[in-house]
Structure formats: C-alpha cells, structure tokens
Amino acid sequence: MILHHLYILGITVEAITGALKAGTKKMDVFGVIIIACATAIGGGNIRDVLLGNHPISWVGHPEYIVITTCAALITILLSPFMKYFHRVFLVLDALGLVTFTIIGVRMTLALGHGFIVASIMGVITGVSGGVIRDVLCRDIPLVFQKEVYAGVSIVSAWLFLILHAQGLPEISVILITLGTGFSLRLLAIYYNLEVPKFNYTQMD
C-alpha cells in the first residue's frame, strides 16, 4: 500500500528533524531519541488516544519505534552533513504532512466517525508531532508562526473527504489529495506564504 511506504518515509524524516532540533538544545542521546520518536509518532498517538483506538499505533507496530530510534542515532552520527539536505527534508516533510493527514482521516472514518471529527483527527495526526517537539524543546511551535502548514493539512483533509464522498476509487482519492496537498505546501515554502499574525501590545 502506497500510504504505508510513505508513512515509513514520513516517520523517518520527522524523526530526523526531531533529532536535529534536540541537538540544537544540546540534549543527550536519550533526549534526542525521545524527541525524535515524539516528533515522528506523537500525532498518531494523540489521535488514537482521543478516538479510543487501541492498541495505539506504535504498540501495535513496535517496529515504528525501532525505525525512529535508528533514524535518531544515524542523525547524530551524520549531523555534520545534515545541513546539505535541508531542502530535501523540507520536501519530504511536505509529503509526510499530507500522508499523515490522509492516514488520520481514513482511520477516523473507518472507526465510524463523521466528516468533522475525521478532518480534525487528520490535522491532529499531521501537525501534532511537530507541536510536541517544539513544546518539549521549549519553543513556540513552528506550526503557529511559520509558512502555511496546518492550513495545508486542513485543505488536504477536506479534499480527501469530499472526493471520498463522491465515490471515487480510494487510490484516486489518495493520489489526488497527495498531489494537491504536496503542491500547496511547496508553494507555501517557495513563496513564504504565512497566515496573518495577531500582534497585540497591551496598553496602559
């Protein structure tokens, strides 16, 4: 299944970004692994807990922990070279965002929930890992202040739901959503598109 392979790629890339973020905070190896795993599979964990879906993803598939842990350790070893792959990580992260969103939506629908819940769970699956990473590293989550990110997840979730409701073959729905969401995210990165910011200065 294409989503499974993309998911493995996605958690690997997210684990690398988590490990690099932990490195900027000068964490020890254990801390790096924890941040990497939380970044990679945190969104899915939150989704499963909220939906009461047991066992949660990594408990049912412990190989996910092995993959993300290995990605973290490799990142530590190859950290001097990681700066050369910054653009590659951005592209793969965009693909991972849409993949995670689709997986979240599909799983929620399979559990019998409606479109609103499915769309929310898709976004939670897509963006929560990065939020957990930044909170643990004591930073404002990037999803709240950088290029359009959560917006891409929202659009991808609803596009999938609309196409699914039209009765299209699932593979077509997946590919169309992947292509559209991926393209939107790349455009947001290239043109530095951002959601308008709220800047409040308290007045005496």
From TrEMBL:
The chain crosses the membrane at residues 27-44, 64-81, 88-109, 115-136, 148-165, 171-193. Its main location: membrane. It is a multi-pass membrane protein. Keywords: Cell membrane, Membrane, Transmembrane, Transmembrane helix. It holds the Pfam family Gly_transporter. It comes from the Bacteria. The keyword Lipoprotein does not apply. Residues 6-79, 91-164 form the Glycine transporter domain. The keyword Nuclease does not apply. GO terms for cellular component: plasma membrane. It is found in: Cell membrane. InterPro entries: Gly_transporter. This is Uncharacterized membrane protein YeiH. It comes from Desulfoluna spongiiphila.
